[in-house]
Amino acid sequence: MAQLTADLERHTSQYVEAFNAGDFAAVDKFYTTDAVAVWEPGKPLTGDARRAYQREFLASRPKMTATPRQVFVTGDTALMIVDWVIDGVDADGAPERLQGVGVDVLTLGEDGVWRYAIDDPYGQR
């Protein structure tokens, strides 16, 4: 099972592991309580809406690959630019490939673990 990490260099691979396992509870732990996610451009989600959207998306068992392109850190805040691809199925059951360049802001918690504060997979257009 994917583990949360204090090692920012391993954060993306650990997140991908939890995502590919379809483990919503594990994936959710990678986010701050008040995280903002923008999985559909122009539609930011927080709280229960963010969790419901992600739970439903993971239920279709998509598979992700992701590679950090750039990582910048200042204090307890990090900015990550990540190339990603998700292979899954659309609403009609046909194969679907999503891809983009994500712009993510992470914060370092008091427990020493990095978590997403802002997750914008389509952030760089």
Automatic annotation (TrEMBL):
Transmembrane segments: none annotated. It holds the Pfam family SnoaL_2. InterPro entries: NTF2-like_dom_sf, SnoaL-like. Residues 14-114 form the SnoaL-like domain. It comes from the Bacteria. SUPFAM superfamilies: NTF2-like (SSF54427). This is Nuclear transport factor 2 family protein. It comes from Streptomyces catenulae.
